[in-house]
Design goal:
Elements: H1 15-42, H2 49-52, H3 55-73, E1 94-97, H4 100-105, E2 106-108, E3 121-127, E4 132-139, E5 144-152, E6 156-164, E7 167-177, E8 179-185, E9 190-197, E10 204-212, E11 216-220
Helix pairs in contact: 1-3
Amino acid sequence: MYNAETPLRAELPSSSKLLRSTLLAAISAIVILVAIVLPAEYGVDPTGVGRVLRMTEMGEIKQQLAAEAAADASATPVGSPASTVAAVPANAGTAVSGTPKALDVIQKTAVAPVANSTWRDELTFTLTPGEGKEIKLRMTEGEKAEFQWIVNGGSVNYDTHGDGGGRSISYEKGRSVPADDGALVAAFTGNHGWYWRNRGPSDVKVVLRTRGQYTDIKQVQ
């Protein structure tokens, strides 16, 4: 039978080396947890590295989807009077507000829809059942942008929010909303806009119109 040679004491790692290796492994695990896992899974980015690597945005979307799923699970069954939204006017729906300060930033208007020629940008896109889309305006702190979006063929869940420079904010959320309009004031310099998700059984078409103070408008991948 082959017997392995017993290593000499000098060949074995010392206690200090073992301790150092253990500490390095623990530090590496903490760095990975803080810089990658927390931003990617929970949208928590204490170091700002997750935002640079676009991990934080992924985590925020995951948390939003989880919240929507939980809300849908506890919602009134489809077909009951409370779930009927066909006759709901624009700006109706169930709004789930953020902080009181965030509410002040969304300034609702009661004006009728304005002709397309007066808007700076207009985007139209289709959402299939279960599909979501995010569009952001690049804004400097204090800038104000007016907006109007309308859903043709149904309603959507939405989240008006912003992020940038390691900061994030949720201005307003809503469920089963067919339209919305108002003015968005940037709480800080960064990207501010909307995330929509179609929870209905059929395709819907969303038309977004914007104007005012912002650098550009983009779809977030």
